[in-house]
Structures are given as C-alpha cells and as structure tokens.
Amino acid sequence: MEEKTKGQQLKETLFYEQKDAFNGLTDEIREEAMKFCVPYAVFLDRAKTEREAVAEGIKMAEARGFVPYTFGQPVKAGDKFYFNNRGKSLHVFVIGSEPLENGIRISAAHVDSPRIDLKQHPVFEDTGVCYLKTHYYGGIKKWQWVTIPLALHGTVCKADGTTVDICIGEDESDPIFYITDILPHLGREQSAKPMGTAIDGESLNIVVGAAPFADEKADQKYKLNFLSALYEKYGITERDLMSAEISAVPAMKARDIGLDRTLMGAYGHDDRVCAYPMLLAALEEENPVHTIYAIFADKEETGSDGPTGMQGSLMTDIFEDLANTMGANIHTVRANSKCLSADVNAAYDPKFAGQFEAKNASYINQGVVITKFTGSGGKGGTNDASAEFVGYIHNLLSDNGVLFQTGELGRVDAGGGGTVAKYISAHNIDTIDIGVPVLSMHAPYEVVSKYDVYETYRCVKVFNNAKN
Ligand code: MN
Ligand code: MN
C-alpha cells in the first residue's frame, strides 16, 4: 500500500468523519437494534396517548419491582420507585449508592403527541350524518389529518363519580372514524389557497355515524343514535362529555418501512421513540451508583404547562423530598445533577433541502442526535448546553462506542422549536438535548431508523452509569 502523504495524515488527525450505522456499528449491535424495536412497536400500538403511555410505563415498572412512591417515606440505596402524576405523567427513579449530593442522573421525554381532541360540546348532526367537533392538540398540518382512519381514545368522568376509559378503532373488528375532504374535481377554490389555510380548524369534524335512531317522533335522530350507542357501550351521556378528555389519533399500527426493514413508521414516534428507550434504561438499573431518574412528561406539545407538564414542580418536589429524607442539601443535589432532555430531531430530508443546513442537520441512520441548543430566531428560547457539558457527553459516547451525531433543527431563521430542556435546566441542572432523528415529524405517521432508536437507548444507559 502506498504511504500516506503528510496532508493525508494531517487530514485524518484534524478532520471529523461522521460514521453511520453501516460503518460505525457492529453486525451484532445492528442485530440487537432490530430486536429492540419489536417490543417498541408493541408499546407504540398500546400507548397512543399520554395516559396510555403512563399506564404501560407503570406495568413495565411494576414488572421490574418498582413500587409507588409516597412523599416523605423512607428510602435506601437500591430502592425502585415510580410516581404516577394524575395518570398523565410518570416519574421513575432508582436510589443510588453514592450520596444524593453527588447529583441525580435525569432523563426526560414526553409522551403526549399531536392529535385531534374533542371539544366539550362535541356531538351534532348535519344532513343525515353525526359528527364530533374538535380542537386540535399541538402543531399539526391540518390537511394531513383528513381522510385517514382515526381511533378515539380517552377518559370520561361520569355523573355517578366513576371514570371510564374509552378506546374505539384500534381492534381490527372496531369501526374507525373519519374527517372528510372535498373531491379534487370540486376543489379548485381549496387548491388555490395556501396549504396552511386550505383546511379550516373548525372544519375538522369527525364522522361518527349516519343512521337515525328508529323513532318517528324523536328529534335529532342521528345525534340520538350515536349517543345511544355510546351509552350502551360505556354508560356515557352528553353531560359526561363536557368534562371528558377524548382524542382522535391515527388508527394505524407501527410497521416496518422498506424491504430491508431498517425504517419504522408509526403515529407518535415524537416522543415515545425517546420515552420508551429512556424508561427501559432506567428500569433496568439494579443498585446504581448515581440516583437514576426518568420522566414521561405530558403537555410538551402545547408548552409544558399545567401540573403534568415539565413547567410543573413535581420533579423538584420529589428531589426536595429525597434530599430531606436522606439529609442532603437540595441546592447541592440540583447543582450536581445532570439531565438528558430526550426529544426527537428533524432528520435531513433531501426533498426539503432548502429548510435544512446540511452541515449541521441530523441524518437517519447516523445515531443518537446531540443538540447543543434549540430555539429559533437567534437562539431564542433555548437551553444552550455549555461547551463543558457537550464535551462531556461527546466523550462519554465516543468512549463507549455509541454512534452519535450533532443536529440543529433546520436552517437559521427557517423556523425552529423547543423541548423541555429549558424547564429542567432552569433548576440549576446541566441539561442537554438528545434524541432520535425523525422524518415527517408531527405527521399522522412518522418515520425513524431502528438503529437510531437503539443508539438512543445505549446513550441513556451510558449516561446513567457514567462514573463522573
Ligand atoms: Mn417532541
Ligand atoms: Mn413534537
């Protein structure tokens, strides 16, 4: 072989060469990634709302010996707890063997996804069809949600004080629900509109029936027929719907995409694709050195507000509680804690090259994405992780053979977005954004690479178990 020139040698030393799953991971790891995503697909199909994700998360935690945590209770190293926050967010933690003042290893991901929620007075009929009025949740392109199969998921608190969970449209034998669109032949006026205004928010009415109640004298027979069926199945009346939380989500199951089965399509990868590996990484800890803490957060898609969002105080309440019980100074605990804010990143899509900046975008199959800052318009509204903390994470992943890439969300001034990172870092906790690159983010059916999912899992494992 020819000897390398000085310039070639220098280039090898000085340039950074990004690897991908095919030249940067062993056959064995790629095989493990494929296997890892089999139960992930099951989780996706079972947990389409934050409530369902929390319920699944609790099942997974209990199966591994985790027990509910009560404020003020005694704790010792090795103890495994979960805290169910109103059925909509879940905090899971394992007490480490070292002093709490050395800091907690936190990972946080959200389990709410964009969808279409029912209004509080949803049911009406028009021209022989019964519909439900909706108000969409999170950032959606409204035109993507018409003419696709929808399922209804939710929780209804009845007048008698009992609560009933509903889920219609997921079983193969269930009916599904649907939002109509105008045919192209008559769509000239709609087609001339900018896409963002082509479908009006108030027109996202869901078709739920088209048969009248069989009674000549009854009024509003189509609405009555729907409510009668709902009452028969769940014992719910129109009054109960006024307080209900019911969401329409795509009635589609997670599936492999492409002949090589590297890619996986599903509703709501954002952000269960980070939540699932992150939870699993925490649940697998037995007698860790650091105290390990994982969060399934709610309300990220609408701004992290409310008691179940990351702007709520639960995480710091529990930290304070643990500090009091274990005789640690809460300020020291927080100052020495570290957090992975795990959320998806926009994978580079050559079809939309103009919206990305290729040198700083994230790519499918190049591993977990490390994002120093998010935000928009001159880094507005971001936790900007310090050079020290980013360097720490990069070294940790390199040293442990985890495939990672950096990724900024799109071109400067193309738009942008935020995560829960800024709410956690506000508590004097070093926080960095990590996550899985996603194609068609926020669409009813999103796409990820199985290798990136697995590298995100390995990233959280390595972080939880790092010595320093
Ligand atoms: Mn997200
Ligand atoms: Mn999102």
Give a written overview of the molecule.
The chain has 468 residues and is of the alpha/beta class. The chain has two domains: 10-113 and 267-465, Aminopeptidase; 115-250, Aminopeptidase i, Domain 2 (Roll). The protein has 14 helices and 22 strands. The strands form five sheets. The protein has a nine-stranded mixed beta sheet. Strand 7 (150-157) and strand 8 form a beta hairpin. The radius of gyration is 24 Å and the shape is globular. The model has no long low-confidence stretch (mean pLDDT 97).
Question: What is this structure, in a nutshell?
Answer:
With 468 residues, this protein is of the alpha/beta class. It has helices spanning 6-14, 21-24, 27-46, 50-63, 188-191, 195-198, 221-234, 238-241, 269-283, 314-326, 330-335, 387-399, 421-425, 450-465; strands spanning 67-68, 80-85, 89-94, 104-110, 115-126, 129-137, 150-157, 163-168, 206-209, 245-250, 255-257, 263-266, 291-297, 338-342, 345-346, 368-371, 375-376, 404-406, 416-417, 430-435, 437-438, 446-449. The protein has two domains: 10-113 and 267-465, Zn peptidases (Aminopeptidase), CATH 3.40.630.10; 115-250, Aminopeptidase i, Domain 2.
